[in-house]
Specification:
- The chain has about 200 residues and is of the alpha/beta class.
- Helices cover about 30% and strands about 15% of the residues.
- It has a single domain, classed as Rossmann fold (3-Layer(aba) Sandwich), CATH 3.40.50.
- A 7-stranded mixed β-sheet has the order 3-2-1-4-5-7-6, sandwiched between helices.
- A hairpin with a 2-residue loop joins strand 6 and strand 7.
Length: about 200
């Protein structure tokens, strides 16, 4: 199974995927990409723009996972902006661009992940699991899920999922962990995608 893992980060969603899948991971930040490659040396990592790569190569994969940047959509960023901690920013519409692109062009199972936004989503998600929204072209049944990686504010609790203590990284380690999708969710959704892909029914 050929999987496209867009905006790969350090690989939270990827960690519990089976060894036999072939993953192409796209990460724009080379330092974060280096961390990903340290954990998943068997994957093909490309440091490039995920949005453009999706447009150019979506037909070459059996399953597509996309986790576009979430900061501009998050409630915590909005609260921080209103308190003066951060400057205000507009929501990054590439999230919805990718959902609509995949809805109309992709013939394989796909999923787009993001945080629960501070506004009513412009496109209703397929499922909500923990602090994550998921849009997909296949059914994602509710998951009995207890987030052991993040607290209610999204901050990392369990750093044993990815041990970054000895790594020299030009990025905040807590932020890298905060951006991770819990590996249990990644495994759950991939298993559903495999079933849908084998059945040939992604409607």
């Amino acid at each position: 199974m050929k999987i496209l893992n867009l905006y790969a980060g350090i690989g939270g969603n990827r960690r519990d995927w089976p060894a036999e899948v072939r993953v192409t991971a796209i990460e724009l930040n080379p330092y974060i990409g280096h961390v990903y490659q340290t954990f998943f040396p068997q994957d093909k990592l490309l440091v490039c723009d995920a949005h453009q790569y999706l447009i150019d190569y979506y037909k070459e994969f059996d399953f597509i996972w996309s986790s576009p940047p979430c900061q501009s959509h998050s409630k915590m960023r909005l609260i921080g902006s209103k308190s003066g901690q951060y400057p205000p920013i507009m929501p990054d519409m590439s999230l919805y661009e990718e959902i609509m692109f995949l809805q109309h062009y992709a013939d394989v199972p796909w999923v787009v992940e993001n945080v629960k936004p501070y506004y009513k989503p412009l496109i209703e998600p397929t499922q909500i699991i923990g602090r994550n929204y998921f849009w997909s072209n296949f059914e994602i049944p509710p998951m009995d899920f207890e987030d052991e990686l993040h607290n209610d504010r999204g901050s990392p609790l369990n750093t044993s999922v990815f041990d970054l203590t000895t790594m020299k990284i030009k990025h905040r380690k807590d932020q890298l962990l905060r951006n991770c999708v819990d590996p249990k969710i990644g495994e759950y959704i991939l298993n559903l995608a495999i079933i849908k892909g084998e059945s040939g029914n992604t409607g």
